[in-house]
Amino acid sequence: MEARALWLLVVVLVLGSSSWTAAYQGLSTNLCEVSPKDRVDCGYPEITSEQCNNRGCCFDSSIPGVIWCFKPLQDTECRF
């Protein structure tokens, strides 16, 4: 009986975590289409794309010399 209860718990946890993961959509691409000259810094030196995205910000390192981690179009402040 304990094995059955344990198996049920595992199934519930797996199903619960997979639906939670699917619910997170992240930022849509068009919210991150900010002109390089209009970008507002939302990070710090050497921030990774994952760290930047976890702050709710956009990350684009394709253009050297401009801000890589920046606020999306609709945001007015950074989330920490």
TrEMBL record:
InterPro entries: P_trefoil_chordata (IPR017994), P_trefoil_CS (IPR017957), P_trefoil_dom (IPR000519), P_trefoil_dom_sf (IPR044913). Keywords: Cytoplasm, Disulfide bond, Extracellular matrix, Secreted, Signal. It holds the Pfam family Trefoil. Gene3D superfamilies: Spasmolytic Protein, domain 1 (4.10.110.10). Its main location: cytoplasm. SMART domains: PD (SM00018). Residues 30-73 form the P-type domain. One of its GO terms (cellular component) is secretory granule. GO terms for molecular function: identical protein binding. Transmembrane segments: none annotated. Disulfide bonds join C32-C58, C42-C57, C52-C69. Involved in the maintenance and repair of the intestinal mucosa. Promotes the mobility of epithelial cells in healing processes (motogen). This is Trefoil factor 3. It comes from Ursus maritimus. The gene is TFF3.
